[in-house]
Amino acid sequence: MPRSVNSVASRARRKKILKKTRGNFLSRKNVWTVAKNTYEKGLTYAYRDRRAKKREFRALWIQRINAASRQYGLSYSQFMGRLAKQNIGLNRKVLADLAMNNPEAFRAIVESVK
Fold first, then answer.
1. Does residue 28 contact residue 45 with C-beta atoms inside 8 Å?
2. Alpha-carbon distance 53 to 31, whole Å?
3. What tens digit of pLDDT does each residue of 19-73 get?
4. Are 17 and 35 in contact (CB under 8 A)?
5. DSSP strands (E only) in the chain
6. Mind giving me the DSSP string for 80-109?
């Protein structure tokens, strides 16, 4: 029996990857082996950076809270410690948003923990 090769499926598989690498530079968009490696590496970066994004945003929120609380004479660690002691359950994302967009509300929180 002759060897059967499913070229339709092979071409469809390759076209699917090449479609996803459209917009890349030079041979990364149209040479199959290079495009395949580029695509797989991109998926690895995407997986890694979905986790890194959470760390980066937490660091940003901490910097914003620290800058805002220092205006009222408290460091970040003092402010967060007093929040925890008073059982005020606001997370860093909300506190940073208040510090940036609603300074009066943030000042009221700082005054309540002082």
1. no
2. 31
3. 999 999 999 999 999 999 999 999 999 999 999 999 999 999 999 999 999 999 9
4. yes
5. none
6. HHHHHHTT----HHHHHHHHHH-HHHHHHH
